[in-house]
Amino acid sequence: EHGSYGPWKRGLVKVMAEENFHLRNGRNWSKRISQAGGEARDELQQAVDWMFPLTVEWFGLPDNLKQHSTQLDYRLKGLTNDQLRQQWLSTVVPFMESIGIRVPAHQEGDGYVLDYPFPCTFDADE
Predict the structure, then answer these.
(1) Architecture category of domain 6-114 in CATH
(2) Whole-prediction pTM value?
(3) Strand partners, 113
(4) Which of 71, 92, 102, 114 could form a disulfide with 77 if both were Cys (CB 3.0 to 4.6 A apart)?
């Protein structure tokens, strides 16, 4: 959507349709499971507790720690890592709150703040 490279832009139209399907499916099932309550809801909460920090990492390093901006310079990527992360958080956090699932992030001003150190360091032994 924000890039300038024609072949990618055209190819990503189909990818976006597929991703939107997965997004709708995930939202529908998350809502159903949270409403079911009991063990199912507890397992959903455990999955979110485990996956939320991993998913935040998908967007890459915070902008202040990045050393290369070539993708932005050549407009292969239209938004910075932090902008993409904020866009994702602005969708996920309100949705999860609306279905009663806790996430380690909160709104502060016009953006969202993580409630844990970022970027994460992972200990393979734990």
Answers:
(1) Up-down Bundle (1.20)
(2) 0.82
(3) 106
(4) 71
CA separation for the pair 26, 73 (Å, rounded): 34
Residue 7: the pLDDT is 82
Given pLDDT bands bounded at 50, 70 and 90, which one contains residue 2? Answer: low
Rounded CA-CA distance 70/78 in Å is: 11
Q: Tokens for 17, please give them.
A: 């349709």
What is the C-alpha to C-alpha distance for residues 102 and 49, in angstroms, rounded to an integer?
8
Rounded Cα gap, residues 46 and 50, in angstroms? 6
Burial track 10-23 (b if 16+ CB lie within 10 A, e otherwise): eeeeeeeeeeeeee
- pLDDT, tens only, 58-117: 998 898 888 777 777 777 777 889 999 999 999 999 999 999 999 999 999 999 999 999
Rounded to whole angstroms, how far apart are CA atoms 30 and 20?
15
**Burial (Cβ within 10 Å: 0-12, 13-18, ≥19) of residue 51:** exposed
CA–CA distance, 49 with 103 (Å, rounded to integer): 7
Q: Give the number of residues written for the chain.
A: 126
Domain boundaries, the chain: 6-114
